[in-house]
Amino acid sequence: MAVTKQKKVEILEELRQIFSEDAVLLLTTNGAKAPLSAVTNYNYRSSMDNGQVKVLIAKNTLIRLALKEKGVELGTTFGQTYVQVLPGGDEVAVIKTVLESVKDKFKDNFSVYGSVVKGQFMDPAQTEALSKVPTYKESMSMVASSLNSIIAKIAIGIKEVPTSIARGVNAIQK
């Protein structure tokens, strides 16, 4: 069934909004080792729903038009292109979440086409490097644990002075 012009306009508007606000990961079935069956497609989309990642499949022409308005020239794409977005999430979380899932369960069915972060297109190598960066939550937990260890060392140091004096007094009494 063909997509009506009105539906294409709606999809294009949604893509414009997605590419302007969020970090987006683009996966393609082109160049994948195994074809994407209906069951695999369903399993993939279901696994993304659990993580609140929004999956949108759009025509490559519409994706190209939406990115062109951002000043990004997308090369020719073939096959299905999946657009993944984590609304309200940090820029790294969607890329890290999706790529971990793809590497674990769907590595033969998808290849990374690139990503768009803050309106800038990143090729597959840059996208892979970005997936290795800690997410906002991971960064905050690292900072918190560093602060906690410093505070613990200060507390131990402060406690050690009276303990040493008490040991000295006990040694003198004996």
In short:
With 174 residues, this protein is of the alpha+beta class. The chain has two domains: 129 residues, 2-Layer Sandwich (Alpha-Beta Plaits), CATH 3.30.70.1730; 41 residues. 57% of the residues lie in helices and 14% in strands.
**Average pLDDT, all residues:** 79
Please state roughly what percent of the residues sit in beta strands, choosing from under 5%, 5-15%, 15-25%, 25-35%, 35-45% or over 45%.
5-15%
Order of helices and strands: HEHEHEHEEHH
The CATH topology of the largest domain is Alpha-Beta Plaits
So what's the overall shape? elongated
What does the model show?
The chain is of the alpha+beta class and about 170 residues long. It folds into two domains: about 130 residues, Alpha-Beta Plaits (2-Layer Sandwich); about 40 residues. About 55% of the residues lie in helices and about 15% in strands. It is built from six helices and five strands. Strands 2-3-1-4-5 form a five-stranded antiparallel β-sheet, sandwiched between helices. Strand 4 and strand 5 form a beta hairpin. Helix 1 crosses helix 3 and helix 4 crosses helix 5. The N and C termini lie far apart (about 95 Å). About 25% of the residues are buried. The mean pLDDT is about 80.
